[in-house]
Design goal:
This protein is mainly alpha-helical. The protein has helices at 2-28, 34-61, 70-76, 89-116, 120-144; strands spanning 29-30, 87-88. It has 5 helices and 2 strands.
Length: 145
């Protein structure tokens, strides 16, 4: 189970950092695409917050504990932070595509580990997460074409 806990914890840390990155893009976006993407960032952020909460709760359900400090999160994450500078909608979406692909790959890894550990609840939970991330990736990739 330790590998499963570690994988879920890494997903959680990365999702928290992606949530902050979504905020940065929302706050510092300029130029063409501002209006539709400013609103879309709100939706992405709400979805990220929901994932953060449900993943943290899932860790508690399976007998582990979620990361509880920024230091622990930053030590665990594989996501690069985004600075507080102006960014275009296209640049922001390109950053998020990379990050959402990372999250989706991690979700697929968690599913595999959960199945190996005979934990169908966690596998189902991360299957739904992967489906949501996949839809968001499709939308973002369609936007930048």
């Amino acid at each position: 189970m330790n590998n499963l806990y570690e994988a879920v914890s890494t997903f959680l840390a990365d999702q928290i950092v992606v949530g902050m990155k979504i905020h940065n893009i929302h706050w510092f976006m300029v130029g063409e695409g501002f209006f539709p993407m400013h609103k879309q960032m709100d939706e992405f952020y709400d979805e990220a917050e929901e994932r953060i909460d449900t993943v943290a709760e899932r860790l508690l359900v399976i007998g582990s504990r979620p990361l509880g400090s920024y230091k622990a999160i930053l030590d665990r994450t594989s996501i690069k932070e985004l600075g507080d500078h102006d960014i275009t909608a296209i640049e922001g979406i390109k950053h998020l595509i990379v990050d959402f692909e990372t999250l989706n790959n991690q979700a697929l890894r968690v599913i595999k580990l959960a199945e190996e550990n005979e934990d169908p609840g966690t596998a189902d939970h991360f299957t739904a997460i992967s489906q949501d991330l996949g839809k968001s990736l499709w939308m973002m990739k369609s936007y930048i074409k």
